[in-house]
Amino acid sequence: MKRIVHFLKSQKAFIIIFLLCFSYWGYLFVNSQMEIKYDAVDYEYLGTVIYQHGWGQFFKQGPNREPLYPWLIASSMNIAHGLDIPYQQVQKFLQIIILFITQLMLLALLKKAKIHNAIIGATILYFGFSPAIVNSTFSLYSEIAAYPFVLGMIYFGYLSWRDIHVGTLSKVMWWGILISLSFMGAAFVKAIFQYIFLIYLIPYGYVVLYSLIKKDKGVFVKAFIFIIVSSSMLVSSVISYRFLNKYYNGTFDFTNRYDVNLFGTIAKRVDHLSPQLMMAHLASVPGTGVCRAFFSEENCKYCEFFGMDQYRAAILPELLRNRSITDGEDRKRATLSFAFEKISENPLQYFFLTAIESLKMAFWESTQIGFVLYPHFLKQLFNSMPIKNGIRLLVSLLTYFSLFYIIGQLYRWRSKLRDFKSDEVAGIQIGFFVLLIIVPFTGFYALFPILTRFALPIAALYLFCIAFTAQGLTFGKKLHKKPAQV
Q1: Which of 18, 193, 327, 481 is most buried (most C-beta within 10 Å)?
Q2: CA triplet 428, 431, 433: central angle to 5 degrees?
C-alpha cells in the first residue's frame, strides 16, 4: 500500500494516468457506436434542423430542448461534411475533448482544496474510467456538455467568495462574469440551472446584508456589484432566448416538456397507493433491477417515467378541454396551475414520494445506462452481475457516506467559511459550494422522475466529496497542514 501511495504522489503517475485514460477513450472512439434511440433521436433531429435550415427554423418549431447540445451536433455535422466522414465520429471526438477538459478542471479543484496527490490520482483515474461518465461521452445525450460548466461554478464561486472579502473589485467583477458564463452554459444544456442560480446567490445576499449591518463598505460594494454583474448577464441571456421563442413560435418560454411532466408526476404522487406500490417506490431507489427483483414489471414501471406519462395522458387533456384551452401560453399556465392544485389533494404523500425520489440522485454510477454499443468483451464485462451491481453499490455507498461526512465537516468548521487568510481551509469553502449545487440540483430534479443519467452533470462533484472524505479519514490533519504538490 505504501508503494502505491508513493507512486500516486509522483509526477510520473499523473502522466501514466492520463495516458491510460486516453488509451481507453481512443479504444472506445474506434470500437464503440452511438445508439440513436429515445431522446437521442430528438437531439439528432434538432441538430439536423440547425445544420440544414439554421436557427430560424429551430425556433419556429419550438420551444424545443435546450439549444447548446443541438448546436454542438450541428457543428459536428458541418465539420463532418467537410471531412466526408460520419458526424458521430466528430461528435465523439468533441465529447472526448469536453471530458478531458472536465478532468483537468477536477484536478485543479482537488489541488485547490489541498487534497493529497494519491487521492487526486485515484479520483481522476476513476473519473476517466467511470462506466457512467464514459458512457455519457460516447452517447448522443446532452449531459456531457454540462460537465465543465458545473465545475466552473464551484471553482469561480470559491475564488469570488474569498476576493469579495480580501480581493479587489476588478477581480470580483471578473469572477462574476465567469460564474455567469458557467451558469449560462449549463442552463443552455439543462434549463434547471437557471433556477439553481437563484439558490446559489443566497450566500452572497447574506454577505450584502451582513456587511451593511457591520458597516463594512468595501465588502458591501464588492458583494453587491458581484450579484449585479453575475445576475444581469445570466438573466439577460435567458430573457433574450425566451423572446426569440416568443417572436418565432409565440411562446415566451425557455424549453418544452416541463409543465406536462410536472403535472403527470404530481398527479401520480397524490393518487392512492397500495402498500405494494409504496414498497415498489422504495425498492426503485437503488435502480430498476432491484425493484424488479421483488415486484412485478408493471409496478416498477409505475414508479418510473411510465407512470408519469400515464397520468399525464389520462387526466390532462380532459382538464384542458373542460376549460376550452388551446393556445400554447394558456395551456402552459393552466397545466402548471392544475399541477399545483393537485398537490393539495394529498400533500403528505406527495412530499414523501418526492423525498424518496431525491434519494435516487446518489445512485449515479451504472454500467447499464445504455445508448452506446460497446465491443463484445466490454459488453459482457458490464453485464456481469458482480461488476454491474458491485460498482453501482460501492460507488453509491461512498457517495452517500461522503455527503454525510462533508455536511458534518461543514457544520463543525462553519467558522472557517469566513477565514480568508489561510489557504488551508480551501477544502471546506469549496465543499460549501459543492453542496450549494448538489442540494438544489437534487431538489429540483426530484420534482420529476429521476433517471440515472440525470445525475451525471454533478457526478464530478460527487467524486470531489468522496476525495474530500478520503482525505479527512485517511490522511487527516497532517496533510491538511502540509499538502503534497503535483
Answers
A1: 193
A2: 120
| Residue 110 CA from chain centroid, whole number | 18
Would you call 216 helix, strand, or coil by DSSP? coil
Q: How many residues does the chain have?
A: 486
3-class SS of residue 87: helix
* Spatial separation of the C-alpha atoms in residues 39 and 176, rounded to whole Å: 34
Residue whose C-alpha is closest to residue 88's, from 47, 126, 143: 47
| Contact between residue 74 and residue 51 where contact means Cβ atoms under 8 Å apart | yes
| SS3 assignment, position 205 | helix
pLDDT digits (tens, 9 = 90+) for 342-394: 999 999 999 999 999 999 999 999 998 989 999 999 999 999 989 989 999 99
The confidence band for 267, taking pLDDT boundaries of 50, 70 and 90, is very high
Identify which of 103, 86, 89, 84 has the alpha carbon closest to the alpha carbon of residue 144. 103
Q: What pLDDT is recorded for position 328? A: 64
Q: Determine if the pTM surpasses 0.90.
A: yes
Which residue type does 365 have?
E
Greatest Cα pair distance, the chain, in angstroms, is 73
Q: How far is CA 132 from CA 33, 320, 371, 444, 460, in A?
A: 16, 40, 11, 21, 11
Q: CA angle at residue 458 from 454 to 463, to 5 degrees?
A: 125
**Cell, residue 14:** 499523473
Mean pLDDT value across residues 288-292? 87
Distance CA 147, CA 288 (A): 25
> Is the distance from CB of 77 to CB of 398 less than 8 angstroms?
no
For residue range 310-353, list pLDDT tens digits in order: 888 888 888 887 776 666 667 888 888 888 999 999 999 999 99
- CA dihedral for 410, 415, 420, 424, sign (positive or negative): negative
- The type of residue at 303 is C
CA 154 to CA 457: how far, in whole Å? 13
